Model the fold of this input.
Amino acid sequence: MSEKRVGKQSIVFNDPPIIVSYASVAGKKESEGPQGKYYDIASDTDLFQGKNWEEAESRMQLMAANTALEKSSFKSEDIDYIVAGDLLGQLMATSFGIKQLEIPLFGVYGACSTMGESLALSAMLIDGNYADRVVCLTSSHFATAEKQFRFPLGYGNQRPLSATTTVTGSGALVVTSPRCNKVDLNKTQLRITGITTGKIVDYGIKDPNNMGAAMAPAAYDLISCHAKDFNTDFSDYDCVVTGDLGMVGTNILYDMLKTENISIENIHMDCGMHVYDRKKQDAHSGGSGCGCAAITLCGPILKKMMDKTWKKILFIPTGALMSTVSFHEGNTIPGIAHGVVIEA
Amino acid sequence: MSEKRVGKQSIVFNDPPIIVSYASVAGKKESEGPQGKYYDIASDTDLFQGKNWEEAESRMQLMAANTALEKSSFKSEDIDYIVAGDLLGQLMATSFGIKQLEIPLFGVYGACSTMGESLALSAMLIDGNYADRVVCLTSSHFATAEKQFRFPLGYGNQRPLSATTTVTGSGALVVTSPRCNKVDLNKTQLRITGITTGKIVDYGIKDPNNMGAAMAPAAYDLISCHAKDFNTDFSDYDCVVTGDLGMVGTNILYDMLKTENISIENIHMDCGMHVYDRKKQDAHSGGSGCGCAAITLCGPILKKMMDKTWKKILFIPTGALMSTVSFHEGNTIPGIAHGVVIEA
Done:
């Protein structure tokens, strides 16, 4: 077994890849929410000058990638790989969003865990000397997701209160090798110091309006595995961030972790519960989608790390691996989670 | 720039990852075709004892992975990662097919180029010491693809002669580190010696019944880039394998390569033109789908390499990055291709 691997499912980076820049693009409702001021592009429309919702989502991805590139001062031709994906069938937002960047592409799908998968693969490609600079990118859009998984918005269907609201947003990060960007001790630098890669976890939940419950076991499995692999009780972390478990999923996660005497209540944050104002904004059970974890990471979370409010976090976006077909055929909703350790 | 990188988009492995085993599972029509005798599981039904087509495709993936694992003598708990994907929205065949294997998963999507993407990422994860053993897996199924991209089979719709037939099949490979399996000079071993990663290439083709034309520019771009990166005129290759360009796409590819004075006609093979008997089997313009390149690679191609008929190939599955929504919205069909050099 390689010395880079720790425990069963984790990797530790001794010379960690550096996040040199990040950017977030958010839709109207998200921009009006409590995190609005942290987004690079806070839009007052969800169309982003596209002709339809799918094009809007593609345009968000391109804006996020271009903004992150601008902030990094790299051009697209300096980038070795882009590791990107979204929720739409055949990764449509990515395929059409980023083609003009002309960067070699690895398309990835991990449902709402996609940003975790993208960061994990990118960190290994960089640490292993296969790339010097990689862009990680993902998105989701309320209207494209409703159209694909539920009903087109024009139908005006009613959504149950247990349903989450798919976040309209896109997040991008430029990750580089420490060989290119040496750590400047006078400057805060964000580094990816470890990863824990998730397995598919299926506890038999079948309700597509209760995705928190479907994904909580995957988050539990990942956290439990991370604790063993890194031999930690999480006292060395400032925050354990989950993607979009919502209230129901969060409570299930706490209960499951109790069986292993792991307590993260005091340092846990679920992006889905922070992206909207629960009192003022009608977002039902909170936010979800690839964009939820992505804009929260590339907005308030990394901001808190840049000003050293937080020095070490475990970022665990969670995904529900259902399709538009699977739950109509009576299938369960398997979950997956990918953990990424980020240190300032 | 890292010394592992060659040229703009390629990686060379000095201590190449080893393909220790591979397996192919094929549907009825494929099993009756000219390559039938090369498949590990040649089925006389397309349902594979599933209750519906999606479940059938999931079962194929599990059978392919399990057969490859058996042949490798590894168990699923010995495997560090599985890098897998398929054509269905939200990678449904993978999500439901492999959950019982309980292997950390990187879900990937590159349309019909998925096996190339999976092999490329797996080779880097192994060569970089992040994994010792990885399973690469993909599939496609005629009935699930028709249902998703065109019409459910029950409608009995007519398909134009220019349309390809999505292959019902799944291929799996177990790739390991040379650190675990030393090269035995008395035994043929298959090794991944290099990769060239593709960009999205879009020449504006809009006809979903002419995917060969949509993907040919991506294959051209990849081959042209590979020639420059590896400084080769392909005289050192026994075969350049494309995935599913068909007759139309193949001719376009040859014409495009002529503009750069690259000639591969004598050593080129397109899996889509070999998977069915063009005279006896009504497969319209040939085979396509992730499964087409996968079962041809994990069937006749690697067989030819094991008996040293071929010693070095460039495997380039090509993908059409359209979705069920995109072409109805009048979008083009962007293509992508991923190249993998395999040597015996």
Q: What stands out?
A: Chain B has eight helices and 17 strands. The longest helix of chain B spans residues 53-72. Residues 38 and 299 of chain B are 5 Å apart (CA to CA).
